[in-house]
Target: Heterodisulfide reductase subunit B
Amino acid sequence: MNKEQEKKLDEAIKEAFPMADQVDWEDVYQRIIYKYSTPHGLQHVKEELYKLEDKGEILVHHVKPMYNPVEYQSLNGLPKKIPTTKLWHHKSCGQCGHIPGYPTSVFWIMNKLEIDYLDEPHQTSCTGWNYHASGASNPVALAGVYVRNMWRAYETDYFPLIHCGTSFGHYKEMRNMIILHSEIREKLRPIMRKLDMDIVVPEEVVHYSEWMYVMSKKAAQQKKYNLEGVKAAVHTPCHIYKLVPEDTIYDPEVYQGRRPAAPSGTVKNLGAKLVDYSTWWDCCGFGFRHILTEREFTRSFALFKKVIPAVEEGHADVFVTSDTGCVTTLDKSQWVGKAHGVNYNLPVLADAQFVALAMGADPYTIAQIHWHATDVEGFLRKIGVPVDDHKEKFLQYLHDLREGKEETQYLYPKHRKIDFYLTLPDRVKWYKSQQK
Model:
């Protein structure tokens, strides 16, 4: 390699790593995978998005000042706007069904931080299970589900916040497909018109964990328990940063910007110590199709490739992650090891649960740790949470509910902001009148 080639290589490395002064070759290799894993870069997609808006082919749900957005850098250096209020919650099927303390922790944190949000009762599934596990659907149908949900957010004027990592990755791919392929738009538009809707694409696709990271320092100001002695291993979900990888936020304060900002940065900002382990890059073992067809592989992978390295190498007290399947797999696979005499019993929490518990949320009514298979109670005792008192109150609450002596507790008034379902903003009324 001559000097001219070395100079070009140095320049290319600096361009690829705008946030880090020093680079090792393993990171270079991974960044190259990230950068070229999609045929069109994020900047090109955004440029085409605004062109289509100018032509009147699509509606763009912009990140407006009323959403109080905060900008963070994405992988390729482009700024990504993260709305912090007036948020439309696109909830997760798996979270609500298997880890209910996950979404309730998100809502509880938003209540504590006085965030304006809308818990949408008319949302549908993203069909991510169908997309990743069966392959039985088709691009137009997948795009239709995406646009239908985004239209719901658009007409309420609240910005969509995606809870599920699979929905997040899936929707990023759907956005790119709609923007880059006119044949999809041509087939999709008449379908949406039959529903009295049109093609709406948000300016940003935002995962709740990105919001959580942006707000984590503010949340830490209301922290009730000291986490300085806690060693936390983190698993960053594949569907968040390996699907359309350049559209995820990074921060030089988190691993020098070499790994996604969330959820590692959230854990760090709450005062816990991040511990590393050799298999941080690997999948949690969930993998969609093989969780259905080779479940024992999933359970073994989660234990031997994730849990054991986190404990033996990182000496972790807790495993923190930020996606439905990852929490479920890492938490609920450990009983298999126990059955075979390999009992590590590493508590697994979503970042939202981790933050909420640190802020003093009830472990049972809010974080709902009784849905977990691992010993979360033991971890909470270590940080000073009066677990037994909370459990006694919770059991009494359940008893009183059964006896009719207690009313159901809600995180917000029932049918909150119902006016948004009965009347549409003037902007949408005007748009619909133009289509007649």
In short: The chain has a mean pLDDT of 84. Residues 39-206 form a domain with the Glutathione S-transferase Yfyf (Class Pi); Chain A, domain 2 fold (CATH 1.20.1050.140). The radius of gyration is 22 Å. The chain has two domains: 39-206, 224-392.
